[in-house]
């Protein structure tokens, strides 16, 4: 029996995650039945669950995948850039599934509120984004770009709360075309203010 290449396995896993993201965003966790997951991914139940133990493992992998992508942006450009990316017009976004990401993010928030087992499993994964944000802020402070009168942990919490507020704002379908100045203010709030001579 021929062995399947790692590239093929990785591509299949990506196909499952992309289809599942759309399915979870459209139908929610409970509504994302196995039949709907099969339709969204174009794969059989056996193919899907060969890569993921069960639906919760698939959902966690999807949420973790999104968190890792965000952490990469944070490490390079900061958490405010993640927020700016959410506001970009769909044709300018790096990923065509930003709306699906938003739906998945909201489903993560809902499950965190209602499912203690999920909350415990997610806690292990969610630290990545917080750690990336904290490390970016520490580097910015060392470079003299970040205010030094507020603890980095407080600034991290502040930025994460702003992100959650923006996600809620977008999820409610409220207009976002006036949010850039708000994000400018957020960025200015964490910057070091230099006294003019």
Characterization of the model:
It comes from Lentzea miocenica. Keywords: DNA-binding, Transcription, Transcription regulation. This protein has 197 residues and is mainly alpha-helical. The protein is 75% helix and 0% strand. It contains 9 helices and no strands. The longest helix has 27 residues, at 116-142. The protein is elongated, with a radius of gyration of 19 Å. Mean pLDDT is 85; it is low at 90-96.
Overall geometric form: elongated
Point out poorly predicted stretches: 90-96
**Cα gyration radius (Å):** 19 Å
Characterize the main sheet: none
Task: Assign the structural class, choosing from mainly alpha, mainly beta, alpha/beta, alpha+beta, or little secondary structure.
Answer: mainly alpha
Instruction: Please give the share of residues in helix.
Output: over 70%
Instruction: Give a count of the beta strands, DSSP E runs of length 2 or more.
Output: 0
Give the rounded overall mean pLDDT: 85
Strand content: under 5%
Give the ordered list of helices and strands: HHHHHHHHH
């Amino acid at each position: 029996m021929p062995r399947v290449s790692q590239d093929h396995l990785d591509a299949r896993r990506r196909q499952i995650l992309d289809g599942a993201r759309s399915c979870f965003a459209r139908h929610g966790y409970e509504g994302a039945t196995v039949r709907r997951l099969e339709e969204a991914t174009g794969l059989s139940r056996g193919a899907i669950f060969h890569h993921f133990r069960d639906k919760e493992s698939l959902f966690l992998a999807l949420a973790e995948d999104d968190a890792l992508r965000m952490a990469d942006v944070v490490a390079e450009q900061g958490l405010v850039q993640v927020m700016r990316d959410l506001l970009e017009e769909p044709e300018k976004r790096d990923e065509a599934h930003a709306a699906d990401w938003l739906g998945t993010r909201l489903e993560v928030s809902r499950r965190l509120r209602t499912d203690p087992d999920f909350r415990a499993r997610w806690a292990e994964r969610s630290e990545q984004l917080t750690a990336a944000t904290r490390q970016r802020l520490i580097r910015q402070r060392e470079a003299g770009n970040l205010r030094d009168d507020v603890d980095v942990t407080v600034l991290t919490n502040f930025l994460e709360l702003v992100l959650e507020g923006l996600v809620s704002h977008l999820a409610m379908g409220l207009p976002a075309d006036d949010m850039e100045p708000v994000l400018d203010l957020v960025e200015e709030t964490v910057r070091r203010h230099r006294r003019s001579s």
